[in-house]
Amino acid sequence: MRLIIMGPPGAGKGTVAPGVCKATGCKHISTGDMFRNNIKNQTALGQEAQTYIQKGQLVPDELTIRMVRQTLLEDCKGDQFLLDGFPRNVSQAEALDGFFAGQERGLDAVILLVVPDEQIISRLSGRMVCPDCGESYNVNSRRPAKEGICDACGGKLVVREDDREETVKSRLDVYHSQSEPLADYYDRKGLLLKIDGSQSPEAVTQSVADALRGL
Ligand code: AP5
Ligand code: MG
Predict the structure, then answer these.
(1) What is the CATH number of domain 2-115+175-213?
(2) Where are the beta strands (DSSP E) in the chain?
């Protein structure tokens, strides 16, 4: 399948993506994870992206679109993917449409995780992530078995630099002004599946799987 998962920062995109990918055979493509890997490896792309990510702003479209296009072509031959965090504005969505132009089929569905802002702020203030494999934990809802250590790969958990309160506020503003309009964009194309993201992670994953089975 060709899928997008969207929703505000902290909606649970990265949490439910592995379960959705397991159920569908899709490859998880997270632009946020790709930028963070580039920052960790101190690449030129990482250095440029970091200045925007630290402020909670979008990385310029040109860099982002080039990175996604290359990954789609190289890693999954343009098929069987779950895009997480891309597209994030209308010009990125149009670039993705252009990628499928001339092909018989485009996207299969766009999953929108709906979570109120108050819940987002409380989730992000308790998040810890594994810098090695990208797995997300939470002091309130998803503690690792061993304090500070990733269950999946044994990495040392850290707090994401952009989870500071002021940065979360600007990420939410950017979401509401630039990314949320994409819900209408995809609804008009008949692709949008709205999922209640305020349920438990297991229930959200199940709701997504049920919605995809209905396609
Ligand atoms: P990105 O990494 O995509 O960040 P984001 O969209 O802000 O989303 P998050 O990763 O913070 O949240 P999530 O929805 O994955 O939630 P998670 O599952 O971790 O992007 C980072 C930055 O990169 C952007 O700000 C931008 O600068 C740049 N960027 C990325 N893509 C770009 C693009 N296309 N264009 C331009 N710039 C781009 O869950 C959050 C927490 O909640 C965790 O602690 C988790 O354990 C907990 N949790 C999850 N689900 C539940 C649940 N159901 N109940 C209770 N707790 C839960
Ligand atoms: Mg994420």
Answers:
(1) 3.40.50.300
(2) 2-6, 27-30, 81-84, 109-114, 127-129, 136-138, 192-196
